[in-house]
Amino acid sequence: MTPQEYNGHVRKMMIILSKANVDSVYAAMVLANGARMEGIESEIFCTFFGLDAIHKTKMDHLHISTVGNPSMGIPTLLGGLPGIEALASFMMKREMEKLDMPPVREFMDIIKASGGKIWACKLAMDMFHYTTEDLYEELDGVLTVGDFYTRAHGFGTQIIFI
């Protein structure tokens, strides 16, 4: 596509997921799914702690961070008490269920079924000693940062860091 052919519309969303707390993971999935529903290509690139969102044994047990999260309205001292994080995570997941939001694995399946792509970061996998066998079965593959940027080429591509 040439600059003259580009109409100014978003054509592809490249979402970098760097954290696997509930709010970050759902933000990435909602954006990716919303893009697909609008006919926009979408890809999620999981790096560093974002790999836990696609780790087979961790993806169904994500929590919300209660310490250092000013929007929680919980003083730091209380947020660190035993059981507070689990309680806050339970309450948030219950509210999400009321809105008919699917669990993480099912939401990833929906994104994949709609044509979205989900990638793992090679550097982060090496750092955490993960293998592809540790990760979500429908993963599209493992990318280096260079591979990620190659996939992001073209007019109308937006990159979001979460």
Report how far the terminal alpha carbons are from each other: 28 Å
Strand content: 15-25%
Mean pLDDT: 91
Unreliable spans are none
Radius of gyration, CA atoms, in whole angstroms: 17 Å
The top level CATH class name of the largest domain: Alpha Beta
Report strand order across the widest sheet: 4-3-2-1-5
CATH homology superfamily name of the largest domain: DsrEFH-like
Provide the CATH topology of the largest domain.
Hypothetical Protein Ychn, Chain: A
Number of domains: 2
Strand/helix succession: EHEHHHEHEHE
Name given to the CATH architecture of the largest domain: 3-Layer(aba) Sandwich
SS elements, strand count: 5
The number of helical runs is 6
Sheet/helix structural class: alpha/beta
Major sheet characteristics: 5 strands, parallel
Shape: globular
Write a brief structural summary.
The chain is α/β, with parallel strands linked by helices and 162 residues long. It has helices at residues 22-37, 76-79, 84-98, 104-113, 122-128, 145-151; strands at residues 12-17, 41-46, 117-121, 141-143, 157-161. The mean pLDDT is 91.
How would you describe the overall organization of this protein?
- The chain is an alpha/beta fold and 162 residues long.
- The protein folds into 2 domains: 1-60 and 103-162, Hypothetical Protein Ychn, Chain: A, CATH 3.40.1260.10; 64-100, no CATH class.
- 36% of the residues lie in helices and 15% in strands.
- The chain is built from 6 helices and 5 strands.
- The protein has helices at 22-37, 76-79, 84-98, 104-113, 122-128, 145-151, and strands at 12-17, 41-46, 117-121, 141-143, 157-161.
- The protein has a 5-stranded parallel sheet with strand order 4-3-2-1-5.
- Helix 1 (22-37) packs parallel to helix 4.
- The longest helix has 16 residues, at 22-37.
- The chain is globular, with a radius of gyration of 17 Å.
- The two termini are 28 Å apart.
